[in-house]
């Protein structure tokens, strides 16, 4: 009996044995790791002053109040005017203007500690038009609002009567750039009426008010802010 079953047992054993030594599959090909290319920096097109416009240099601006508390509040960095935001003050022109077109860019400097969306939207500045003397915080003027959530709205300061204006809030929401990015503003003045354009879109259309001529001022209101390319073209209408 054992002589007849030996070949079968041997075959079974060999099958088991060969099953324990299966051929090792070839290794999978190694995929090369691609190193991500660096994101190129955004290069802005060269800025050229438009025909009929004049750039207002930092040297032609004064700070109010002009005392030791504001000595370091504003400074020039290349073409930009940088404000620490504190204390409350404003950088103003020295020549009174009326009808014409003002253009400027501004942006809030990013604050890593500021992440609350409500606080981001409340970062504040503004440009004062038709500033009347005596200077004060804030002087009689009409402000083109720079507060992020109200950008471009018109508001009175220093006891000036409010002006009626059409506020295109839906357009503002799509035209406005995020905090930290440049926003470009154009203000057209005709006999005291201001029309405000933000990044190429009209967002506020004002009616004439009691003020029609005066100085122009850039506000510091507690937040680091940069202005650049402040320029003006005069007009008879």
Structure keywords:
disordered N terminus, Jelly Rolls, 15 strands, 3 helices, 237 residues, 6-stranded antiparallel beta sheet, mainly beta, 9-stranded antiparallel beta sheet
Descriptive report:
- By secondary structure, this protein is mainly beta.
- It has a single domain, classed as Exo-inulinase, domain 1 (Jelly Rolls).
- Helix content is 13%, strand content 35%.
- The chain has three helices and 15 strands.
- The protein has helices spanning 2-19, 117-121, 169-175, and strands spanning 54-55, 61-64, 74-77, 80-83, 89-93, 100-108, 126-131, 141-145, 154-157, 165-167, 183-190, 193-198, 201-206, 215-220, 225-234.
- Strands 1, 3, 4, 6, 10, 11, 12, 13 and 15 form a nine-stranded antiparallel beta sheet that branches.
- The longest helix is centred in the N-terminal third of the chain and has 18 residues, at 2-19.
- The radius of gyration is 33 Å and the shape is globular.
- It starts with a helix and ends with a strand.
């Amino acid at each position: 009996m054992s002589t007849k079953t030996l070949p079968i047992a041997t075959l079974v054993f060999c099958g088991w044995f060969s099953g324990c030594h299966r051929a090792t599959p070839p290794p999978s090909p190694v995929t090369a790791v691609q190193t991500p290319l660096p994101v190129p920096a955004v290069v802005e097109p060269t800025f050229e002053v438009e025909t009929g416009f004049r750039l207002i240099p930092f040297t032609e601006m004064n700070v109010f109040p002009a005392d030791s508390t504001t000595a370091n509040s504003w400074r020039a960095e290349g073409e930009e005017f940088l404000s620490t935001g504190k204390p409350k003050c404003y950088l103003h022109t020295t020549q009174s203007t009326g009808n014409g077109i003002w253009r400027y860019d501004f942006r809030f400097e990013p604050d890593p500690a500021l992440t609350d969306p409500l606080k981001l939207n409340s970062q504040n500045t503004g440009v004062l038009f038709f500033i009347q003397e005596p200077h004060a915080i804030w002087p009689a003027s009409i402000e083109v609002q720079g507060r992020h959530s109200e950008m471009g709205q018109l508001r009175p300061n220093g006891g000036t009567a409010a002006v009626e204006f059409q506020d295109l809030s839906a357009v503002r929401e799509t035209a406005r750039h995020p905090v930290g990015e440049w926003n470009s503003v154009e203000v057209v003045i005709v006999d005291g009426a201001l029309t405000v354009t933000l990044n190429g879109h009209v967002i506020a259309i004002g009616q004439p008010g009691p003020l029609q001529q005066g100085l122009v001022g850039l506000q510091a209101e507690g937040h680091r802010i940069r202005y650049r390319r402040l320029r003006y073209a005069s007009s008879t209408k």
